[in-house]
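Demo today. Your pick:
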Amino acid sequence: MRRPSARNAPMPRRASSSSSTRPVRDGRRSGFGSSFFVATFGQHAGSRVAADVFPGTALRRSPRAAHERDFSTHERPASPRFQAAPRPHPADKDTTRNRVSACALAASQIDAYHIQQLRLQTESSRAARCTSNRAEAASLLYTDSPMLNVDQPTPLARALEQSYRHGFVTDIESDSLPPGLDENVVREISRRKREPAFLLKWRLAAFERWLAMAPPDWGQLRIAPIDFQAQSYYSAPKSLKDRPKSLDDVDPKLLETYEKLNVPLHERARLAGVAVDAVFDSVSVGTTFREQLAEAGVIFCSFSHAVEHHPELIERYLGTVVPPADNFYAALNSAVFSDGSFVYVPQGVRCPMELSSYFRINAQNTGQFERTLIIAEPGSHVSYLEGCTAPQRDEHQLHAAVVELIAHDDAHIKYSTVQNWYPGDANGVGGIYNFVTKRGLCAGARSRIAWTQIETGSAITWKYPSVVLRGDESSGEFHSIAVSNHCQQADTGTKMIHLGRNTRSRIVSKGISAGRAQNSYRGLVRVARTAEGARNHTQCDSLLIGPQCGAHTFPYVESARDDAVVEHEATTTRISEDRLFYCQQRGIDPQEATALIVGGFCQAVLEALPMEFALEAKALLAVSLEGAVG
């Protein structure tokens, strides 16, 4: 038998390792680039847009195995990378969402060879094609009407022309404590809230611990020294001093403020189908649908109302997930917190509507220190939404909140945040310091907690929503988009602590940096000796827009078991000129092309948001990247 030569012998396949980071070419992960985009944008999304580039044909991948595909732009395979295929039938049309996302797909998938081919086309044919495609692109991007004048600006284009639109100040009389923090301030806050003795004792113990602590300095952040004696720790509108019994008794100026913010209070709440707890500075303005939810057994109210009417629940659960000594800002919050939201879902109850809180800072030189506590009894389900804004000011203001989630056996909690605090101006003047502690406890078997967050605002964001997986077969999820532009800084991520058997966790983090911003992901996956069969998958992607921004990744993995499966993958890429050039050939200007590409980059996280916040989140992404290109 003829012995095969070394030249003709097949190369052995290298075994892949789930813990290693795969090589990256032009922002794509080799190994599942095609399947990832098909799952995200639809089966024919890429072929349809590519077919517009080369009339008469559609483009598809050669039928090679995913792990054999070569994504290198400077080393082309001998066989054609793309091959012609029949154009899809006109009846097989994607949805508007997939077709819009297809622009981002094609911009990220097209390689240098086809970009060069496109550049070599004649000016006349290019102009003719752009004219027709501009009309098509405009109709796809404008979702309100299928027929649109091409000169009419699209929603994304209009959004990019706007600055921070929530920076107004409500002119209202406030009752504020003088600046400074000591034991008397803590006692006065407790007196104004009419709290029981056990809570005052808890506050004073937290204050003593805070005095013995020092502000942390280990973050990838440049923080100017904070004078904790120069700000007020309590401010409330004077009109709320008598605690109005319903929204009809609330000052119209406060209701008008939330109307400007598109927060459904009063009559609009009935149409929105979302229960809202609106917090203004240090107090709750009102809570909608409280009586209707009570009929289902669900308690949804302000934290102050819960202290007054359900003190046994507060005493039992407060501080069990985030103790006062957890960190510097958690101790500060425990001492001076004034209001927030409280949710209790009884056993076997699926909350009949979305619950939501909206936090608004209005008073000058005042910090906001709300506290949120959500308890899901066995077999219950609840989805909670959170939003926030603040006025536009030249000085920094502090926001130091604490969120505690507790899920018992078979309970599910979904917590979503669209954070839109004032980020400061383009030169880094003003903005909110957002130092928040969020943690969930999967206390029971098969319980589940999912965090979803869109971080677009605040001058500095420093937070790590976490899940402690104590119950067997419990699971935790974290989906995050952190956008930093101009001089913003973000050091955010998550912690997944595996304690129970067969626990699962998943982390999907998308970081976007533009201007001179710095964006850091910091994640911890810890597997205890008791966590038999634990499994984690972490996906951390960073996108750079411009030459002066930065992206940093700090993954930490601690495993005490040999049978644990911990997977981590990370990519860093940028929006190249070739991608923008491709979109411009489709009649899309650079700013709008950036929004399209970013939308495709963030699609996996946006899909995890409830529908009520998804549209707002997409608009915020566009606005927060204003001026990132050009």
